[in-house]
Amino acid sequence: MTDAELRDELFTMLAAGHETTATGLAFAVDLLLRHSSVLARLREAIGDDDESYVAAVGKETLRLRPVIDAAERTRSAAYSPKQWTRLVSLKAKYDPTNFFRQNANIPPNGA
Fold it and tell me: Is residue 84 part of a domain?
């Protein structure tokens, strides 16, 4: 890799990382301001060094509002019936109204 190519790659990572991080943080702040109980628990978790809850809030934010919402991929073969079954079951479980409630990232009632 030439110096120019290396510079271009580093610039791309810096610019892309800056935008996605800023957007993710903005989404997190917006969601936390709409859900005061989660914000209060997050403040407690930060004070108690509870990194698992902080990470859960980050994951939940990215689940609800992905920064990159359309990653293009090309498949070399069709989905198998088993893969379709999994995709359908995931879609059936998705609930867009389930903001910061019961899900795999944040347990209910702060448990």
Answer: no
Q: Is residue 19 part of a domain?
A: yes
Q: Quick one: pLDDT at residue 33? A: 93
H-type alpha helices, the chain:
3-34, 36-47, 51-64, 81-93
Structure tokens that stand for 38 in this block: 């989660």
Q: What is the mean pLDDT of the chain?
A: 77
Centre a 10 Å sphere on the Cβ of residue 63 and count the other Cβ atoms it contains.
15
What is the number of domains present in the chain? 1
Q: Would residue 108 count as lying in a domain?
A: no
Task: Write out pLDDT tens, residues 58-108.
Answer: 988 988 888 876 555 566 666 666 666 666 666 666 665 665 555 555 554
Nearest to 56, CA basis, from 45, 72, 70: 45
- The answer to whether residues 15 and 21 touch, using CB atoms and an 8 Å cutoff, is no
Residue 23 lies in a domain: yes
Where in the sequence is the domain holding 3, given as residue range(s)?
Answer: 1-72
